[in-house]
Specification:
- Strand 7 and strand 8 form a beta hairpin.
- The protein is globular.
- The N terminus is likely disordered.
- The protein is an alpha+beta fold and 214 residues long.
- The longest helix is centred in the N-terminal third of the chain and has 25 residues.
- The chain is 41% helix and 16% strand.
């Protein structure tokens, strides 16, 4: 009788253990795993070619006249654009919408954690072929084949987040750069799981390299 009782207890414990493991699988991956983005050119270039513009040779064009492109302007409530030297502030309409969705979702995630608002820092967008060639000469990490040439791709810094000035005296706790990096990583993870984008984390350039997948 005792033997049967111990067998029943063991069976219950095994079911409970398996249930816990199943619950663990349903949890959102931890930040450390989220940052193992390795979507290189083998996936980003095909998406850029499919959804982007025909690469432009030089900047001596009227970007506003290209119907596939939309100008991206800084908005101090969600994002800041770094002074661009090797790119111009234009993206395809879907890529611009994706950038704004990332910025909006980032703000929602901050609010959900009781944190103060921070701006994202955009460091690169559309590059002409001449821009790419020039960059390769000065940057060993740059590639002559760049998804940036199609207007589908942009970079967001993961080492530079700006507190929004107008909320300096408002509620919300400050977060460390590492916490903000992890938070942005989760935002990108969710969008990537929806097949909305491809992501490569560039440690040397300290940015997320993101290509719109539509």
């Amino acid at each position: 009788m005792k033997k049967l009782l111990w067998m029943a207890i063991a069976a219950v414990a095994l079911v409970a253990c398996n249930s816990e493991k199943a619950d663990e699988k349903k949890e959102e991956p931890k930040a450390e795993k989220v940052f193992m983005y390795n979507d290189y050119n083998d996936v980003q270039i095909p998406a850029a070619e499919k959804y982007g513009i025909v690469p432009l040779e030089h900047r001596n064009v009227n970007f506003d006249s290209i119907k596939q492109l939309a100008k991206v302007e800084a908005d101090d409530s969600i994002l800041i654009i770094e002074p661009l030297t090797h790119s111009v502030p234009y993206l395809t309409h879907n890529a611009k919408a994706l950038l704004m969705e990332i910025a909006s979702n980032f703000q929602d995630s901050l609010a959900a954690r009781g944190a103060r608002p921070y701006c994202l820092h955009v460091t690169s967008m559309l590059r002409t072929l001449n821009d790419v060639r020039s960059l390769v000469k000065h940057n060993n990490n740059a590639s002559e084949t760049s998804a940036h040439s199609y207007g589908t791709t942009f970079d967001i810094a993961h080492n530079n987040f700006y507190p929004i000035p107008k909320f300096d005296k408002g509620p919300g706790k400050s977060l460390s750069n590492n916490e903000l990096k992890h938070l942005l990583g989760h935002v990108l993870y969710r969008l990537r799981m929806q097949k909305k984008c491809w992501v490569l984390i560039e440690e040397n350039q300290r940015c997320y390299h993101i290509t719109c997948n539509s």
